[in-house]
Design goal:
The protein has 409 residues and is of the alpha/beta class. Helices cover 24% and strands 20% of the residues. The chain has helices at 82-85, 104-114, 123-126, 144-153, 169-180, 197-207, 246-256, 353-356, 358-371, 379-397, and strands spanning 6-7, 70-75, 94-100, 119-120, 134-137, 157-160, 187-189, 214-222, 260-269, 286-295, 300-306, 314-321, 324-326, 330-332, 403-404, 407-408. An eight-stranded mixed sheet has the order 14-13-12-8-11-10-9-15, covered by helices on one side. A six-stranded parallel sheet has the order 4-3-2-5-6-7, with helices on both faces. The two termini are 19 Å apart.
């Protein structure tokens, strides 16, 4: 474990969740076609906790301002079908020019639901296509950091599902260096909680001064699955809960732009055969881990993850400050709240899963490329959401010992 440190990338990181109030207008057998038409079929997501879809009309107030089309490649169509579910193929400022998945049947389905005719057998092959300027990676978590580095090294913008790195602080910091060395390219982690209505409200109220100093925050990711969720090379099986922390750590980092500085985490051993004595690929005995963090502003945060406790699923959080608190609704001293409506997205782009966050995350990435600005959840925010969980698991394996967390700013 490296000593606590500050890594400087951009002095204005308190602005990292500032969004444009303006919405935008709206990898298998290589084929000969060189473009893709709009989506022709709807991808059907499995029934998984946390994947609830918003029924709202997210386009009210959207104003087109550019005719540019960003040429995008989509990679990964596993059990979550994420490559198609964020709506790139529906966006008027996107041309999906190629798709890829390692499994031919999945690649064919991805091409079908996105209306795309150009496919590649692998990410490596897709990256050779000079017509692609941005890539969305909906691949296995252990590959995220390495694959993002490859995309950037090929001169393409990259967006990626969570987390930024899986269990390796070193890989996360290597990714940071690659991002720093490719300053003209955008990196964005698609942390869905950042566009959930509750977190968006908290962030907006915080920026307006409605909370004052944040004294206490909570983030929860209750994600029960009796048989587990299928995954490429079984990467999900018995993985440490805090290695997948961003859905809950976003409820502090994504609200305040702050960081966690120290952690003490306790794990509850799961008594099933695959967990006893860490009898699995991760040598991990825990399916529930509860962490207490110190924050950069002197506050306290509790971050809870569990996969073996049935009941309501939750990606949720709460916050208490010196001027107000939030638990589903704001209660406090600020009487004139700002507009709490989430930013609009183009007509025809569905709000999507995880509480209507998918379409907004995709739109934010595309807007950041066209406007040539920092995207929501850039590399600094991504690491400040991801790395604390890696250190938290280290603490749990040491019986709750307090450990320092690397700082990225």
């Amino acid at each position: 474990m490296k000593k606590n440190k500050i890594i400087s990338l951009d002095s204005n990181r308190r602005e990292f969740l500032k969004l444009s109030g303006l919405g935008l207008g709206a990898s298998m057998m290589g084929l000969s076609q060189f473009s893709c038409s709009p989506k022709t079929e709807e991808a059907k997501l499995p029934e998984i906790q946390g994947f609830e879809r918003s029924e709202e009309d997210p386009s009210e107030g959207w104003v087109p301002f550019s005719d540019r089309k960003v040429r995008v490649g989509l990679v990964g169509y596993g059990v979550c079908k994420f490559a198609a579910d964020f709506g790139f193929q529906n966006h008027p400022n996107v041309e999906v020019v190629a798709v890829s998945d390692l499994f031919p049947d999945r690649c064919a389905e991805l091409a079908k639901v996105t209306g795309c005719n150009k496919t590649y057998a692998s990410l490596a092959e897709l990256l050779k296509d000079d017509n692609i300027e941005a890539v969305f990676l909906a691949t296995d978590a252990p590959s995220h950091a390495k694959q993002c580095m490859e995309v950037l090294k090929h001169g393409k913008h990259v967006a990626v599902a969570v987390p930024a790195a899986f269990g390796s602080i070193e890989e996360g910091e290597e990714l940071l260096e690659v991002v720093r060395n490719n300053k003209g390219l955008k990196y964005m982690m698609f942390e869905t909680s950042c566009f959930r209505q509750d977190l968006y409200e908290m962030k907006t109220i915080y920026e307006a001064g409605g909370f004052g100093e944040v004294v206490y925050s909570e983030g929860e990711y209750w994600h029960y699955s009796a048989e587990g969720i299928d995954s490429y090379k079984k990467w999900r099986d018995q993985s440490p809960p805090q290695w997948y922390p961003t859905h809950n750590t976003a409820y502090y980092v994504g609200v305040t732009g702050g960081t966690f500085t120290e952690v003490s985490c306790l794990g509850r051993p799961n008594l099933s055969e695959k967990y006893v004595n860490g009898n699995n690929q991760y040598k991990n005995p825990f399916a529930t881990e509860i962490a207490f963090f110190k924050t950069n502003n002197g506050g306290i945060s509790r971050q809870s993850l569990s996969s073996d406790t049935p009941g309501h699923g939750a990606e949720a959080g709460r916050l208490r400050g010196t001027r107000g608190s939030y638990n589903g609704i704001y209660e406090g001293l600020e009487k004139s709240l700002p507009n709490l409506k989430r930013p609009p997205i183009p007509p025809g782009v569905p709000a999507g899963g995880h509480g209507g966050s998918h379409g907004r995350l995709m739109n934010e990435f595309i807007v950041s490329i066209i406007e040539d600005r920092k995207p929501l959840v850039d590399i600094i925010a991504a690491l400040n959401m991801t790395v604390p969980g890696i250190v938290a698991h280290q603490s749990a394996m040491k019986g709750g010992e307090w450990l320092k967390i690397p700082q990225y700013s």
